[in-house]
Amino acid sequence: MESKGELKLYVIKKKIKIKQKLVITTLFVAFAVIIGMNVYNAQKPDMELSGLALANVEALADPETSDEFTQATCCEAVWENVSCRGCNGPLYSYAKRV
């Protein structure tokens, strides 16, 4: 037969294990909710681009020809890692002086 002291110790250990399981379960649920919210927010279709981003997209979509670049800068665009100081002053990468 167990004594009252051993029984109380057993009950205390059981309560501690239950509290630990409750804390672990709560943390797991909290992380699951956070991950779910992030996935939901990432899939929202109502994203809008800022004015600067739209201007960048338009500039990239409208390519300038190499003739326009050469006439405006006195440099010719090349596929080599060289630089050219344009006739209007700035330094252009991947360009050679004409």
Main beta sheet: 2 strands, antiparallel
**Helix-strand makeup class:** alpha+beta
User: How many domains in all?
Assistant: 2
User: How many β-strand stretches?
Assistant: 4
Classify the beta-strand content into a percent band. 5-15%
Which residues form runs of ≥5 with pLDDT under 50? Answer: none
- Quaternary assembly: single chain
Which geometry do the CA atoms define?
Answer: rod-shaped
Mean pLDDT: 85
| Helix share, percent | 55-70%
The SSE order reads HHHEEEE
Radius of gyration: 34 Å
Distance between the termini: 103 Å
Count of helix runs: 3
Main β-sheet, spatial strand arrangement: 1-4
Offer a few descriptive terms.
alpha+beta; 2 domains; two-stranded antiparallel sheet; 4 strands; 12% strand; rod-shaped
